[in-house]
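Q: Sequence in, structure out?
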Amino acid sequence: MSSGKPFGKGLMAYLNGDKTPHRIHRDDGYAEDASFDAYFSEYDDWPQYEKDALKEVEGAVLDVGCGAGRHALWLQQRGFRVTAVDISPEAVEVAIMRGVRDCRVMSALQLSFDAASFDTVLLLGNNFGIAGNPEATGKMLKDIRGITAQEGRIIASSRDPAVTDNPAHLRYHEYNRAIGRPIGQVTIRIEYKGEFGDWFDLLLASPSDMARISEAAGWRMERLFRENAGYAAVLSKI
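A: Exactly. Output:
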């Protein structure tokens, strides 16, 4: 997930030793501080569901919303040909500085690659919902169909929004229901050292929602790896 200049600046600062956290603001006024640690974490610190899902990677890989490049680097080290993309130029610069060999500035909503270029596409770090809503997510998944091989697969992760007892989140779910949005669609922006990024939508989908949205776009959920609210799935072409 990328969110404009404050996010990218924070990644670059972290790479250079500044561990100042960023702050995630939601449009209902809820806010929380978050470290950049996860974007630079090593394999041993990743959630088990990510480790399990990454065993399903095959062939040429596209890492969408790569951030600081942790997944791309790990796969590179294991001999995979990886192309990584992120909408943030600063994130791409960080990933290249860390050793990602093929990293490009590109939006997940405008993936400019030839047909059948990849065997596996990663949408990890909640990036299944990077398009922001079910309709846009469906379009993104259809676009990915076009740039993946006949036996292509997607490895995607999200958080089940229903797995919470936080009153602020539960109130937001009710607000979403009232305006006809999925309970896990959040409107957020990133603050870093007093600088604010633009508002954007992120879709947090339950496993059943991921399966439904994916199937409508021509993908079937083949495997699911879950750990509390977090999970990853392997999607294959129908």
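The chain has one domain: 5-237.
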